[in-house]
Amino acid sequence: MLGSLTRRFDRPLVLTVILLLSRCFRFFGSTMTDDERAISTRCVHGKDVRTAGPVATPIAQTSTFVFEDQQQIIDSVSGVSGRHLYTRWGNPTTHQVEQKISALEGTEESIVFASGMAAITSTILGLVKSGEMILSTDSIYGGSFNLFQKLSNEMRFGIDFVDCDDFVDRIKDSNGSYKLCYFESPTNPTLKVVDIKAVAEASRSTGTISVIDSTFGTPINQQPHRMGIDVVMHSATKYLGGHSDLIAGTISASSELIKSIRKSSKLFGGTPDPFAAFLLDRGIKTLAVRVERHNENAMFLASKLSTDKRVRQVHYPGLPNHPNHDIAKSQMSGFGGMLSIDLDCGREEAMTFVDSLNLFLNAVSLGGVESLVSIPTLTSHHDISQETLSEMGISESTIRLSVGIEDANDLYADIMQALEKIF
Ligand SMILES: Cc1ncc(COP(=O)(O)O)c(C=O)c1O
Fold first, then answer.
1. What's the 116 CA to ligand 1 centre distance in angstroms?
2. Which atom of ligand 1 is nearest to the CA of 119?
3. Which residues are annotated as catalytic?
4. Whose CA is nearest to atom 6 of ligand 1?
5. Does residue 117's CB lie within 6 angstroms of at least one atom of ligand 1?
6. Nearest residue to 393 via CA among 316, 315, 304
């Protein structure tokens, strides 16, 4: 083909055109935007594919940074140079993982914190002033619920809790009286699903800042900012880290909102250690493949258990009879690795069941490669009143399973042998 082209046209001209075209293709290839690359690629490489230097993320295990003179310090403090000054304010390892998380969530910026709770606290205190109102769904992680109550009782924040099903209407009817609305989807531990686009639209139309705790969803199964939510939060201790070996939290949002949250984060000091940031970055590299397996395993167990008469109810948004299945299908690409079951028994039998499991480790937390089991009334929701628990739909025989990436048949066999101990 080259031969026939060079016979018909001037050879140097043809070669020059080919060279220019190939440069163009390389140029366009190398400037492929985040959104054009698949999420599994972004998990490995983040925003930009590295072209030089170490393949693994270097750990800047330092509390502080050296400058040549005072002018350089002034330029750093004022933000002119962008150079790191002190690790509570920012660190190269942490910054790298922050950029990767923004690439996953599709936001301008992200902040990594020392824990999920530090992320929530800095977000609320960075965006809401004492005396202003917050609306939250009542089905949320027990720690977040207790934090909101503390802010309301001791720091004059106004907090209203509503059922997930009433959340969107309450935002719409509020006439903008809420500064911020906060929700989880899917919720911990009852796996309710909130219509993310509807929350985003209602919030936009009333000037309310929307914040989602997307820990159960993961950036693989749902990307709420792309559906219009302002702030996306994760307990990165869970799926993002993925190996039960770190505690961290993340916030992703526009640069404008991040500016306010970062101010409070610097003051409250919930900064991650650089080594934890390194572990988080390493964990995220395999997030897409892990979540795929979590999704498959949980779906398998939920389907099997939903036909077992000893299990009163299975809470899993992937099941067609889940009350929010249609919403889940429209906004999630997978239904996640978390499921809860209500056994047809009392508290003592539920405890015996959990203690009889072998593969599901008896430990709080979730989202790691290993399967974990817990009873929410004894753990994540232990100091919440009986009345609130029943409003949340949590009973003493509600058991939360964090389904890991082991073989699904082995996990099912483990549940069967434990059920036989009590029925
Ligand atoms: C849904 C959810 N959000 C937030 C948190 C708090 O995160 P951390 O323990 O990392 O502070 C948890 C902890 O279990 C959680 O399950």
1. 5
2. 11
3. 88, 141, 213, 238
4. 116
5. yes
6. 315
Q: Which atom of ligand 1 is nearest to the CA of 238?
A: 10
Whether residue 317 is preceded by a cis peptide bond, meaning omega within 30 degrees of 0, is no
248 CA distance to ligand 1 centroid (A)? 9
Q: Is 365 exposed, middle or buried (0-12, 13-18, 19+ CB in 10 A)?
A: middle
- In this prediction the pTM is 0.92
Residue with CA at minimum distance from ligand 1 atom 7: 116
Q: What is the pLDDT along the chain (423 residues), one digit of tens a residue?
A: 444 554 555 655 555 555 455 444 444 445 566 568 999 999 999 988 888 999 999 999 999 999 999 999 999 999 999 999 999 999 999 999 999 999 999 999 999 999 999 999 999 999 999 999 999 999 999 999 999 999 999 999 999 999 999 999 999 999 999 999 999 999 999 999 999 999 999 999 999 999 999 999 999 999 999 999 999 999 999 999 999 999 999 999 999 999 999 999 999 999 999 999 999 999 999 999 999 999 999 999 999 999 999 999 999 999 999 999 999 999 999 999 999 999 999 999 999 999 999 999 999 999 999 999 999 999 989 888 999 999 889 999 999 999 999 999 999 999 999 999 999
Ligand 1 centroid to Cα of residue 291, in Å, is: 18
Helix, strand, or coil here: 267? helix
Atom of ligand 1 nearest to the CA of 140: 1
Q: Can you tell me the distance from the alpha carbon of 183 to that of 168, in angstroms, rounded to the nearest whole number?
A: 11
Q: Is 235 in the pocket of ligand 1 (CB under 6 A)?
A: yes
How far is the C-alpha of 138 from the C-alpha of 160, rounded, in Å? 9
Instruction: Give Dmax over CA atoms of the chain in angstroms.
Output: 88
Find tokens 């047809």 and name the residue.
Answer: 344
Choosing from 122, 216, 238 the residue with most ligand 1 atoms within 8 A of its CB, the one to mutate for a pocket test is: 238
Point out the ligand 1 atom lying closest to the alpha carbon of residue 247. 10
- Cα separation, 322 vs 78, whole angstroms: 52
Q: Which tokens belong to 345?
A: 């028994």
